[in-house]
Each structure stands twice: as C-alpha cells, then as structure tokens.
Amino acid sequence: xxxxxxxxxxFPDAATLRxxxxxxxxxELRELAQTYGTPLFVYDEATLxxxxxxxxxxxxxxxxFASKSFLCGAMVRLAHDEGLxxxxxxxxxxxxxxRSGVPADRVIMHGNNKSNEEIARAIKEGVHRVVVDxxxxxxxxxxxxxxxTPVNALVRVTPGVEAHTHEYxxxxxxxxxxxxxxxxxxxxxxxxxxxxLTGVTLHGVHAHIGSQIFEVEGFCQSMSILSDFTRDDDFDxxxxxxxxxVAYVSGEKAPSITEWAHATRAAARKSGLRAEVxxxxxxxxxxxxxxxxxxxxxxxxxxxxxxxxxxxxxxxSDNPRPVLYGSGYEAxxxxxxxxxxxxxxxxxxxHCESGDVLIDEAYLPADxxxxxxxxTPVTGAYGYSMASNYNRxxxxxxxxxxxxxAREVLRRETLEDLARLEV
Length: 423
Ligand code: LLP
Description:
Blueprint: E1 15-18, E2 21-24, E3 27-28, H1 29-36, E4 40-44, H2 45-58, E5 64-66, H3 73-81, E6 85-88, H4 91-99, E7 107-109, H5 116-125, E8 129-132, H6 135-144, E9 151-158, E10 180-181, H7 186-195, E11 200-206, H8 217-229, E12 237-239, H9 257-270, E13 278-280, H10 285-288, E14 292-303, E15 308-312, H11 321-325, E16 332-333, E17 343-348, E18 357-364, E19 373-377, E20 397-402, E21 405-410, H12 415-419
Parallel strand pairs: 4-20, 5-6, 6-7, 7-8, 8-9, 9-10, 9-11, 11-12, 12-13, 15-17
Antiparallel strand pairs: 1-2, 2-3, 4-14, 14-15, 14-19, 16-19, 17-18, 20-21
Helix pairs in contact: 2-9, 8-9
The protein binds ligand LLP.
The site of ligand LLP has 21 residues, from helix 10 and helix 11.
C-alpha cells in the first residue's frame, strides 16, 4: 500500500514543502536538527501570532490563551503582545507567566484545588480574574479577601453538556470534579455566597466542557444554558472555556476559531444574552497545535513477522498523548516530504515500555531508514507541556522560527539539570 504525502493543511502556515526538504518560517528543518539536535520542537511564530490575533478579534477583550497547552516565557509574551490574556491553572503556571513579564492584570487564575498560597499570591499580584471552582475555595476566599485585598471573580459552572471527545478530557457533564452544577442548584448557591463576601466582585460565569471537540453544537448548548442561567444577574462576562479541536491526521477537519466564536456568540444572543455582556473564551490547542512540529532522528529499525518497528530518539516523554488518549499523528520524512509513503512502520520511542508508541501505523517513504530525520506535525499542544524526563531522557529544546531566523526559547535539558534535585 502506498499512501499520499500528508496534506499541507497539517503543516504550520509558514511551511514550504519541496521534493528534498521542508522549511518553516524560512528555515530548513534539516538545518534546525543539525544546529539544535533532536528531538526538537519547532514552532512557526507566524502561525502562533495569526491564531492569537484571530482569537483576539473573534472574541471580546479578556479572551485568554490557555497556557497549559504550551507554556514558556516566549509563548505567553507573544500571546500578550497579540492582545490576549493568559490563563493559568496552578501556582507554577502563574509563576512562569509573571516571571515572563505578562502583567498580572492580564492573567486568569483557574484550578480545582487552589491552595491558600496560590489564592493569596493571585490576590496579592492582582490577577485579572480568579475562576472560583468549589465551596472550599469560597471558604478560603472568605478568609483571604477583604476590602483592602479585593478580587475579581468568575464562577466555574458545569452546564450538564456531554461533549463528544475522549472521556479523560470531558468536563461539562454533571459527574466531574470541576465547577458548580447548574442543575443541582450549587452554582446558584455559590453565586449567592460570593456576593456576600466583601472584596469579591463577581463578573460572570465560566464553563469548560472539554477539549479536542470538533462540533460547535456542544459549545452552543453550553452558551445557551449559561445565558439562561444568568438572565437575571447583572454580569458583564460569559466564558465558553477552551476545547476547540484541531485536525491531527489526514481527513480530519475542525472549525476555525472564528467559526467557533460566531457560533457561540450567536447561540448566546439567541438565548437572550444582553449585547453588553462580553463573550470570552480560553483556547489552548487551537492556538498552538498546528504551529508545532517535532523532529526526531531514526536510530533503529527492527523487522518482525507482524510489522516493522522504527525507533526514534524521543517518544512518550516528549509526546505522551498517544499513550494517554490513543491520539493519532502523522509522520513525514524531512528530506522527502512529497514522496509517496510506501513503508508502514510502528513509530516508537526509546523508553522502556512496549506502550511507548508515537504512531501505531505510520507511513513513510520506502527508503526512510536509520539516520534519517522523521517529523510529526501538529505537536504544538500538550506535547512539551506534558513532557517528562522518564527514563531520564532530557526534555527537548524548543525553537521559534520566523522570517528566516531561528531562536531557541527553551534549551535542551542537560544531564546536570536531571541531577539537580538530588540531595
Ligand atoms: N480552559 C480550561 C478551564 C481548561 O481546563 C482547558 C484545558 C482549556 C481552557 C484549554 O483547552 P484547549 O483549548 O486546549 O482544548 N492534555 C489533554 C488536554 C487537556 C485539556 C485540559 N484543559 C490533551 O493533550 O488532549
């Protein structure tokens, strides 16, 4: 069987595919591998900026980039430059974002189990919004907030919408650890309790129904429920959360950020949401996924009766998504991106687990072999951010490319880095 080359739509915006190479942002992937080594995350800055700008244009002011999808200083400064707020889910994410120079009043603090320290830091720094998740948090806020240390808040609610996606990343249903249920009355009780706290200004409600969602219907349903639910409140914001899906493999198609925004906005207005209420969102994946490519070097080919194993110099440590969610990816040969892909292999990593599979059935040119550069596109989201150093494999470097220039934004982890916590 021979498979067509992978479609250009899975590559970053500023990618050029030729018979004998791929350049992104005007820089040859082959040269990047030579300069920075492999595995390597390469991000096209043009794609990142375009998606940030599209998000800022499509939603109202206060719309955020979900930094958990890919967090480093360069990324959050870029998102901030392009007009987005930055959403963080823990004190660790908050710390990196603040160190990066993003002003606290452009940061939105999430979390289903915020510690006293995390809440206190968010308040002290003066974050833009704290998204309140549960009754224990309300109690903690009661102790930490007063007229002198005010906080602007949203309430996270579960609208009871079952999103069509993997159960591990589904969050809008009733049976979830996140948020206050609308149906049970908890969300209404939470709003009343927060209104009684001196120093808390409540701006509206927030719902995040899940991640990697291809159909806009779930978001529209969620927006209608939230609009109905807040009909008699004097709120000025409604947030649909993140979760817009992206195409990872040939044949998949996802709505654009603009289409997503139009659909959710229309659903909210149709349900009677007042025109002055800002409609917000916090996409992560839809901004960063397609901008990123991971470069690997092939080290070993092993043929068994059932298949061919092709082992690369990374694996589940730089991309745990196939193992965690059964996620699909495509692969291409960096030096022959337009060649027919006549070779079927199981693309595996270098970790000590049979489950260390990047692509169960990858198609590559017939002569791709040991020493060649193989890359997986659409790895910009939840790859680096969920990377580990399992088996003490150092985390890859991350490079941004733009207009013919490359800049390293995260250096490769070293063996010294790996030893630094030993006491
Ligand atoms: N807002 C909240 C409250 C979230 O929990 C998330 C993601 C987002 C926004 C951004 O969602 P996105 O637009 O990126 O789908 N590790 C999984 C995804 C987990 C998503 C967690 N929350 C994966 O690799 O598919």
